[in-house]
Amino acid sequence: MSTVVLLTITGLGLAALYFLVASGLSLIFGLMGVLNFAHGAFLTIGSYGTWWAAQNLPGAGATGWGFIYAVAFGVAVGTFVAALIELALIRPLYERHIEQVLVTVGLSLALVALVRAIWGADPRPFPRPEIARGTTSILGANVPNDRFLLIATAVVVLVAVLAFLRFTRFGLVIRAGVENRSMVTALGIDVRKAFTLVFAIGGAFAALAGALGGVYLGSISPGQGTSLLIFAFIVVVIGGMSSITGTAMAAVLVGLVQQFANYYLASGVGDLSVVLLLAMVLLVRPGGLTARVA
Amino acid sequence: MIEGSPPPLLRMADVHVRLSGSHILQGVDLTVRRGGVTALLGRNGAGKTTTVKSVLGLVPSTGTIEFTGGDGRAHTLSGRRTHDVVRLGIGYAPEDREVFGGLTVAENLTLAERRDSAHHHDRVYELFPELKARSRQLAGTLSGGQQQMVAIARLLLNDNQLLLVDEPTKGLAPLLVAEVADVLARAAEEVTILLVEQNLTVVRRMATDAVVVDQGQVAWTGSAPELLADPDRTRELLGVAPSGGAHA
Fold first, then answer.
1. Given CB atoms, is A188 within the 8 Å cutoff of chain B?
2. Closest C-alpha to B126, from B165, B153, B90, B92
3. How many angstroms away from the CA of A188 is the closest CA of chain B?
4. Is A56 domain-assigned?
5. What ipTM did this prediction achieve?
6. How far is B49 from chain A, CA to nearest CA, in Å?
């Protein structure tokens, strides 16, 4: 029983990480039709930004409010870089999807190479605040607290995104834009502002995932974002490409399947199971979990 | 143009549109005068919808498209982004309604509120009381006629100078056709309309001017009643008899 509890909560923690990365991807693809392969680089920027700030930024540190300050810095850098990339490189290429893919793939390689050139390829130990160091006993299982931190953050982000989409004008524009971008512009709305905002929000969530991923894994390395991005893409596809709730559901499914398969079958089978899950979902529901069935 | 007469509200000169290797508009020249309803007519595939979309910048075009609003200033629309064109006071109801099915009726109308305009919710709910009753219903669950009401309500919500209305009665039951025509006729008392319409009964009721497009070019332009009073010319240009209410 305790093993199941531990695997479930660890799987949900992993799901939270996937959700944070995938939610931004999903919003960006849904509204802009852009497959953002540079999204993993935002995660790397967030993790290294937090790590750097914890060591160098006055007031920031590895524990307490100092750590929150460091995370805020990492997220701010990720948000800024994402917005800048959207304005400078994605905006001139609207509706040119192949060029956008090439640009984002190039960026993912270049940004990771830049981080590697500055801080080296070796993993760096990541600060772990006190709250994430201990364990909590649940039904006989000693669950590391960092899982709860991840899950709580993802839940807060999910609720905040849903509220933003539901109750703000920008949210209304984004929901409408996901359905029919050209009609939104035909109502006199400059949808490009929403594009930049969505890209920045996606960058912020990915950077947050980078910081929390550092806490979860205990270390960071330049290629971490790229490997997480693959699972985030799978989550987005299973969730239905442009649905936040679908993305959350898919993240939970992928996280749990991966953890349980790794434990009960063999180490490493979890990754394969996720790919099989993707194939199964696409066979049964080609549009993903939240696709409307005619 | 007669010296001293006001400039047309909309002027298109030598407008070309090429899409996916096809030359859809091949030098369209037309004007829409201020006031009244100009019907844009033609057979299927003649280029009517593309003409409307080129005004809005929804398709790339070459040539001159000029809009002279109430301020008397001529605005070049060619090369402008769609949202900038619309903000000049040009409303658009597309051929397939294109309401946002995942949003409620009220959200569809809120989304259509333009910052540069007053918002006439009372007017649209007076014209379409059914929409008020269904304001919390998802637009995707409405009937075709109700969705058309939402599309027209979006037009009338703001203060516009020109409405581009593309086949508003397409696929509607006869009673709804009459209702939509009533509403547009009332709107036409206050705002100029460029109406793409194949139902000649509606055209006869509303249109003051007519422009006939054929194979991407303007084949005829003049008074709508004059065109419809000439059965031979109507048959030649549109392929239907003017007495018919059926779609051309």
1. yes
2. B153
3. 4
4. yes
5. 0.90
6. 14
